[in-house]
Amino acid sequence: MGPSGEQFELRAGDYAATVTEVGAALRTLTHRGGPLVRSFAEDEIMPCYSGAVLAPWPNRVTDGRYRHEGSIRQLPITEPERGTALHGLVVWVPWRPVSHTASRLELEYPLWPTPGYPFRLDLRVSYELTETGLTVRLSARNLGDDPAPYGCSIHPYLVAGEGRVDDWSLRLPARRVLEPDPERLLPTGQEREVAGSALDFREGTTIGDVEIDHAYGDVEFDDTGHAEALLLAGDGHGVRMRWDRACPWVQVHTADRPEPHLHRTGLALEPMTCPPDAFNSGRDLVWLDPGATHDVAWRISAV
Question: What is the residue-wise DSSP string for the chain?
């Protein structure tokens, strides 16, 4: 068995997907044989969090520290070069299957208390393929006796077609962006309107050579309470991602990497329940009461 553990295959209509035991990651997603996400090999360690579930926080916690009930909690530093706790606690753990059919998979992971995160959560994620696309649902239930700070996201690298990120156009209905510290990619506390900048993709714009690793906010939701991002190749085909108001933030990253096979070969699009470092800022942080459940869903489909 490879480093990502057991592989769970799903099929429906023209769609096919593979989800891994480790990280409950979406390793592949195709439509009529063409990729909608950047995949990785079964014998490869998951690169750059590709397709992973991010919980109980997405993005970064500064120095891995936050204050809770008068005490400083120290999380594992998983990004040593920037001194941060990155993308939660469940990326590199084995999730166990609850049910698996030809088109639907449910996995669970019991998150037990630790000194850095002294809360007990039951996490469940489901992947369901239909003839119209893939729906990912993540549920967190607090099994402990105290309210738990919580946030989540998923980490697919979307692929529009041939070429690289530079060749594709992005439509993202978000009006503001957090300014990141260029060294640590942590929020500086400043945010600005995207209007008139190279980070404005509200009308659909070719990405070109702009480098993006920003959290977008002030997302525009439609009358049904959903937002939609489109990543399109020059022929008008590509991939759509859709989510609801549970995720008012979106991290976008153009995958600027030193490895040629990873460099700008997919666009990370991560609708998040909270912005980076929410464990310290408290902004849009979910406080999950004992016995309460938090649910969120994302949908990916071909255009």
Answer: --TT--EEEEEETTEEEEEESBTT-EEEEEETTEESB----TTSPPGGGTT-EEBS--SEEETTEEEETTEEEE---SBTTTTEEESBS-TTSB-EEEEE-SSEEEEEEEE---SSS---EEEEEEEEEETTEEEEEEEEEE-SSS-EEE--EE--EE--SSS-GGG-EEE--EEEEEEEPTTT--EEEEEEE-TTSTT--TT-EE-TT---EEEEEEEPP-TTSEEEEEEE-TTS-EEEEEEETT--EEEEE----SSTTTTTSSEEEEEESS-TTHHHH-TT-EEE-TT-EEEEEEEEEE-
Question: What type of residue is 120?
Answer: R
pLDDT at 25: 98
Contact 154, 127 (CB under 8 A): no
Question: Could you give the C-alpha distances from 7 to 24, 69, 94, 96, 199, in angstroms and in order?
Answer: 10, 41, 11, 11, 37
CB 155 within 8 A of CB 234: no
Whether the model clears a pTM of 0.70, i.e. scores above it, the answer is yes
Instruction: Report residue 139 as tokens.
Output: 């549920």
Which pLDDT score is estimated for 1? 87
